[in-house]
Design a protein that fits this description.
globular; five-stranded parallel sheet; alpha/beta
């Protein structure tokens, strides 16, 4: 599911494209996100891990597609009702942010989450619908495999340290 704020260019929006392809359900208001879902949230510290798999299966997985200017408004309204998790360090392959760390499109974020939760085949099928999708998986294969093998958020964070570039 994608909570879509209508902040982006509809022609370039991966969430809208995924919706048109029948890959995701769109909701427009935070109140429409079911309680207990796993929400991909770049403003929290707890990393997504396999320990979130059951909650994602039972309640769902949600990406929020909104401008950074509005991020706190949307995530704040979901904070008490959902499990908020950040994705670990990954590199974007989308045409707008290719090669940039942590600048994933909504579709890349959902595919990464599926992969980390242990749904590798589903992640591959999902992202393959975008011409640059296989490049995202190839660019991040080692990272995604390592994160997928980690059982807890703390383990994902430890594994992530191995992939972070050296300081300045």
């Amino acid at each position: 599911m994608v909570l879509h704020a209508r902040d982006c260019d509809p022609k370039a929006c991966t969430a809208l494209r995924a919706h048109r392809m029948g890959l995701v359900e769109l909701v427009r208001h935070p109140g429409d996100v079911p309680t207990g879902t796993v929400v991909l949230d770049p403003t929290v510290e707890k990393a997504l891990s396999r320990e979130d798999r059951d909650a994602a299966l039972e309640r769902g997985l949600v990406a929020v597609d909104c401008s950074w200017e509005h991020v706190h408004r949307y995530f704040g309204q979901l904070r008490r009702r959902c499990r908020h998790r950040i994705l670990p360090y990954l590199i974007a392959a989308n045409p707008v942010n290719y090669g940039k760390p942590c600048k994933l499109s909504t579709v890349e974020a959902l595919a990464a989450a599926l992969y980390i939760l242990g749904f590798r085949r589903e992640a591959e099928e999902f992202i393959s619908r975008f011409k640059w999708g296989p490049a995202f998986l190839e660019l991040n294969r080692e990272r995604l495999e390592a994160y997928r093998r980690a059982e807890t958020s703390a383990e994902v964070v430890r594994v992530q340290e191995e992939f972070l570039p050296d300081g300045p």
